[in-house]
Every structure is written in C-alpha cells, then in structure tokens.
C-alpha cells in the first residue's frame, strides 16, 4: 500500500480515499492463474510478475488460463470461503475473452506491423472482494510468438477474410503460376478457378458444376 500517491484532480482523490475506507480492516487475498493444471511462475523482480507461456490448443490460437487464489508467495493454491469468484479480464493486446477460462488470439484492427506491440497480451486476474476480504488483482503478460507459423487457418472480423499460417514456396514456380492465372483471367472463364485450385491446395471452388 502506498503512503501517498498523486491523482489528476480532487474528485478522483476523494473517490480513492472512499474506496480505501471500504477496504480498511479486511483480510488480504492473493491471485494467480493455473495453466494446464499448474500454477504459473511468479517473479517478484519483474514489473509484471506473472507471465504465463503461450500454450495454444491444436488450432494454434486458443489457450486456457484459470484464475485461482494462492498463498502470499504465489506457490500454492488456497481455498478461502469467499463470496463470488475470481475472473480474468482483458487489458490490451491481440486477445479475445471467450469464456471464464478460454481465450483466443485476435489481432482485430490494431494491425500486425508493430513488432514491439503486436504480440504482447496483457490480462488481469480480479476478485471483487466481499465483507471479509479485500478486492485483489494480478496483472498477467503473455508473449505471443509472432508471426504465428503453426496452427490452422484463422478467422478475422470479416467473414470472408482468413489468415493462413505462412508456408515456404518456390518463388520461380509461383511467378509462373501467377502468369498462368493472369492469362486465364484474360479469358474470364473457368480456367481462372482451375488455376487457383492448382496454386492453392486448400482452395475449394464454389461452382457445383465445375469439374476439375
């Protein structure tokens, strides 16, 4: 607890004092998260002290974290009798909260061209407190390996636009295929669809009468 702190104005300072008065005399709780059934590490020397690893499901983008109460050293889970339960909220970064313990990578409109910010996910574990226990928070930071080179194709906010995992290609062969696609486009017929299918293994024509 700080002995003193600065605020933007008197209204905010008085609101903070009122909040502290509500918490005075209550017992302290500590939060962390479980990942794959184990508590994540806690480094008291770091600014953000809890840093889960990015451990996605088979799709390459979905991951799971469970907020839990711990002892003061964040070494063991404890089970206080409280009202309510801890939960996790998003602060910032390319992530979407799916449910209480499920999250997914989501680059939304922030773009993907800022190497210093693109891959940082910041979450916070929270407990709102009750008559006996103070409210509690624990900030979490996850570094997403970027660019993602594994996992399945991912959706974007546009239902017709997807992001595919990068793959190695033969540039010379690709340029030949691109020229063939350009030639097919000049005829404006089903040759375009055939060429796309040859270039993109996962491409599925939508024309039911097209025989490849």
Task: Write up what this structure looks like.
The chain is of the alpha+beta class and 212 residues long. A hairpin with an 8-residue loop joins strand 8 (120-127) and strand 9 (136-143). It has helices at 10-23, 171-187, 191-199, and strands at 30-35, 38-39, 62-64, 66-70, 87-92, 95-97, 102-105, 120-127, 136-143, 154-155, 162-163.
In a few lines, what is going on in this structure?
The chain contains three helices and eleven strands, in the order αβββββββββββαα. The chain is of the alpha+beta class and 212 residues long. The termini are far apart.
Q: From the helix content, strand content and strand pairing, which structural class follows?
A: alpha+beta
Distance between the termini: 70 Å
Count of alpha and pi helical runs? 3
Order of helices and strands: HEEEEEEEEEEEHH
Strand order of the largest sheet: 2-1-4
Q: Roughly what fraction of the amino acids lie in strands?
A: 15-25%
What global shape is seen? elongated
Biggest sheet architecture: 3 strands, antiparallel
The portion of residues assigned to helices is 10-25%
The value of Rg in angstroms is 25 Å
Average pLDDT value?
84
Q: How many individual β-strands?
A: 11
Low-confidence stretches: none
């Amino acid at each position: 607890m700080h002995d003193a702190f600065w605020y933007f104005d008197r209204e905010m300072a008085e609101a903070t004092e009122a909040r502290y008065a509500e918490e005075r005399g209550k017992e302290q709780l500590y939060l962390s998260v479980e990942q794959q059934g184990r508590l994540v590490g806690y480094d008291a020397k770091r600014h953000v002290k809890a840093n889960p690893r990015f451990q996605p499901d088979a799709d390459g983008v979905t991951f799971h974290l469970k907020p839990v109460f711990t002892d003061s050293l964040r070494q063991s889970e404890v089970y206080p009798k409280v009202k309510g339960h801890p939960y996790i909220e998003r602060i910032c970064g390319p992530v979407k909260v799916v449910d209480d313990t499920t999250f997914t990578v989501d680059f939304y409109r922030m773009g993907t061209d800022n190497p210093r910010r693109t891959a940082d996910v910041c979450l916070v574990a929270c407990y709102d407190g009750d008559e006996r226990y103070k409210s509690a928070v624990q900030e979490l930071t996850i570094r997403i390996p970027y660019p993602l080179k594994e996992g399945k194709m991912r959706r974007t906010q546009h239902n017709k636009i997807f992001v595919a995992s990068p793959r190695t290609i033969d540039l010379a062969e690709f340029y030949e295929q691109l020229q063939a696609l350009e030639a097919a486009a000049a005829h404006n017929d089903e040759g375009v669809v055939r060429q796309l299918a040859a270039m993109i293994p996962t491409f599925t024509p939508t024309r039911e009468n097209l025989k490849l």
